[in-house]
Amino acid sequence: MNRLKHRGPDWSGLYQHGDSYLAHQRLAIVDPASGDQPLFNEDKSVAVTVNGEIYNHEELRKKLVNHKFRTGSDCDVIAHLYEEYGEDFVDMLDGIFSFVLLDTRDNSFIVARDAIGVTSLYIGWGLDGSVWISSEMKGLNDDCEHFETFPPGHLYTSKSRGFRRWYNPPWFSESIPSVPYDPLVLRRAFENAVIKRLMTDVPFGVLLSGGLDSSLVASITARYLAGTKAAKQWGSQLHSFCVGLEGSPDLKAAKEVADYLGTVHHEFHFTVQDGIDAIEDVIYHIETYDVTTIRASTPMFLMSRKIKSLGVKMVISGEGSDEIFGGYLYFHKAPNKEELHRETCHKIKALHQYDCLRANKATSAWGLEARVPFLDKEFINVAMSIDPESKMIKKDQGRIEKWILRKAFDDEERPYLPKHILYRQKEQFSDGVGYSWIDGLKAHAAKNVTDKMMLNASYIFPHNTPTTKEAYYYRMIFERFFPQNSARLTVPGGASVACSTAKAVEWDVSWKNNLDPSGRAALGVHLSAYDAEAPLISNVPSKVIDSIPRMVEVPGVAIHT
């Protein structure tokens, strides 16, 4: 339990029944006074430990009129739903969650993870026949012969000894939808997604980077906060948070949005050395060696510590928008709406390995919870049912990336954001501030990884072999913390350009020779999409490519990498 105490510093709970153990570290957000875990049904024959938030718990309680609840916790409904509906109740939950439910009547258990994998979860098996479940890999890696990421949208039962996918939305089949784009329908769906995440009994705020996604989240939160229970407890003025290198242009953009919305804005600065000093802690907590995830996680990790020090325990963030709406710059090269839609489906399905992993663990490292309204189940269903022709980027029609989201919130009478923010493109260049972050990381890695070491990389790391010194450096640290083969297999790899899947690399023949998962190849994509005279990335000298920064739009993080 001590290995995961950072995730829940408010309470430690332990329950034993025979050879089954439930352990829980609680971060109290709803009903902090009486919602300690494990949670039980009336006669305590069913016990549950859960990490997450059930946003429709009040509605679900109304369906359980014959049940008596011990606490006001939103997660208290789980044991009672199981009594009424068996394992089929999981799809009734609207929220983010990972839970283990123990039925002491037959000593069986079920495990489930939320639809997209916003909460982290792992499963492992011991040589003695034991099954282990943990929110983080470090909770079971030393005790299991084999372990792996628990798949999102699935449940595992001890009776079947196998997984079953409970989350089966229409878009999952990747068939091409045909619902006409209605901006008001999309707007209302996202507003609802944000509003339901205002359920809290503790101080909270929003992460604000000045980019489109986090700015929309902040705008909607600020608009609807008044009158909520949270506002009555903590005041109706919203707090916003941003971190960046001194002088970052996005710090300025975030401040502009905060001033427009009237938030209490907290701007945190960090230096390149601060980031470098935190790398080992970041890799330990995030549990990955993926280069772009580590780069983006570092400032978020540093910011989360400062936010928690202010007494804030929950933040609302903007992850998921680029995956749903085709917001990455390589989508300029999508050959048709069918390919674009399939790529967005693949991206959403992989979120638990990248942005969800970062958002959950970078915040949980300091006992802070991140909520992500773009990954709301109902909102995803609405957004992914739209005819993908509306998501196609078309310069001649003035449609830039995520045009349908921008248009949905383009309200002349009651503007959500200033026009230039609402239609602000992703930044691709920095004024030198961004270069220092990546250059600093590269220089630090070069001091620790020699050319001779790189020559043997494929023998030392045959799986997902690092191809740069930076990647090699991160891999060394990861392997020191997590030396098991199971651990290295939890991290994805494969060909990518500008954060694409391997399939999307086929969209442009020039990309095959310039694979760059960090998004640096997006420069050529971006230029060629808007300027017919712009050179393709394949015509740019490799040394120049290596110095091109990527703008990582991490909510609340203003930094070019």
From TrEMBL:
Catalytic activity: L-aspartate + L-glutamine + ATP + H2O = L-asparagine + L-glutamate + AMP + diphosphate + H(+)
Leading EC class: ligase
Residues bound to L-glutamine: 74
InterPro entries according to UniProt: Asn_synth_AEB, Asn_synthase, Asn_Synthetase, AsnB_N, GATase_2_dom, Ntn_hydrolases_N, Rossmann-like_a/b/a_fold
EC identifiers of the protein: 6.3.5.4
GO function term, MF aspect, one: ATP binding
Domain Glutamine amidotransferase type-2, chain residue ranges per copy: 1-161
Keywords on record: Amino-acid biosynthesis, Asparagine biosynthesis, ATP-binding, Glutamine amidotransferase, Ligase, Nucleotide-binding
Residues marked Important for beta-aspartyl-AMP intermediate formation (site): 319
Pathway: Amino-acid biosynthesis; L-asparagine biosynthesis; L-asparagine from L-aspartate (L-Gln route): step 1/1
A cellular component term, taken from the record's GO annotations: cytosol
Keyword Cell wall biogenesis/degradation carried by entry: no
Pfam families, A to Z: Asn_synthase (PF00733), GATase_7 (PF13537)
One GO BP: asparagine biosynthetic process
Ligand binding (ATP): 207, 243, 317-318
Recorded superkingdom: Eukaryota
Protein name stated in the entry: Asparagine synthetase [glutamine-hydrolyzing]
Source organism of the structure: Gossypium aridum (American cotton)
